[in-house]
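User: My collaborator and I are trying to settle a disagreement about how two of our proteins should look. Neither of us wants to argue from intuition anymore, so we agreed to look at predicted structures for both before our next call. Could you fold the first one, then the second, and keep them clearly separated?

Assistant: That sounds like a sensible way to settle it. I'll keep them separate. The first protein:
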Amino acid sequence: MVSRELRCLFIHVPKAAGNSIMQSLGTRWAHHKDLARYRSELGDEQLRDLFKITFVRNPWDRVLSEYNFQRKKHQRADTVRLFLHREDGSERTFSEWVKYALSHPEAHSPKDWGGRPSDHIHRMSPQYDWISLNGQIAVDFVGKIERLQHDFDAVCGRLKIPKIRLPRKNRKFHWHYSRYYDDETRDLVGDYYQSDIEAFGYAFGA
């Protein structure tokens, strides 16, 4: 999302409070795009002039949120519930879903999930990849879902706008995410999102 008025660029990583942030900044939903895609569209000069922000989330929590999101999607003719169904049409358990989604991350095209990313990005990509250029994080501010309001207050300060109380969109109540994992799926997510864990200081159970 690009706001010319605020001179900022928000990288909307899937399942990382993007809808709440865009609503609070006065913009509507936009397709998921990574930073490299924005650079290809805007060019380096325009990109430099924008305050580039994103929010990230504990990878284990984010994966569980993605699974729950796919399960609760409203069934319409054009609905695609990513990775959710077995060949016989039955629904995968969370454990099965994790194994399938992380071994077939490109099974769905971007149009299935509202994305217009670079060729190397898919919905299950590490958050690190969404906000990097040439292998290095290239945004100006990385907030965390775990301290969402605090970090968004900091964004408001940088943008020189009044502090805004964020709405909680797409919230689902459940036990702590760690209760849904077994050893295998915990390790699968840990290995797959190692770049996120190292860059943003995440750990299982935190």
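The second protein, kept apart from the first:
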Amino acid sequence: MINLAVYNKDGQEIESLKVDEAALGGSVRYPLLKQAIVMYHANKRVGTAATKSRSMVAGSDKKLFRQKGTGNARVGNIRTGKRVGGGVTFAKSTRDFGKRMPKKQKRLARDSALLAKLLSNNVVVVDELSFEKPRTNDFINVLDKLNIDRGCLVAISAADTNVYKSAQNVPRVAVMPVNELNAGEICRYRKMLFTKKAFLSIIDKDQVREN
């Protein structure tokens, strides 16, 4: 069992949760986690780089001059990559770097990433996280009282405009609904901040005991 404290926005511990590792797969699956992170970075790549090959450059296909007897270097047509204005040798073309994983594997990788965070004491749970209006200073004060001073991924139960706008100007902080969490985003940040409702929704409630 993992003991996990629940804090209020003032940084005071108000209760604790006992989480069974079995709710997150029992152990960290490192090979699967690596595969998910490679997929995460691959899907962020934009394969739009492209240059013109010799077949795409305007110009005649005729050989410029005969092979021998002119005293010039032996070259082909004007579109060759050896000449100014010719095509690029080994030209780049648009490509898709995207990778895919089955839904079950992605869910297991997400659970492994979350379990790794729990085992390293990098998960903080707050009873609620809401603001009457968007205000960056209020959000920073909450992080300070919870001793979160480095990169942080905030997981909330549902989209909240005030929370998004309060956090958007804070460096190395991202806000995401809990149903959109993935292994790549979890591993990208040093700490995770969950609302209690969001944390219980991602873990089987039968595997969590409240004290």
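Some points you might bring to the call about the second protein. The radius of gyration is 27 Å. The mean pLDDT is 90.
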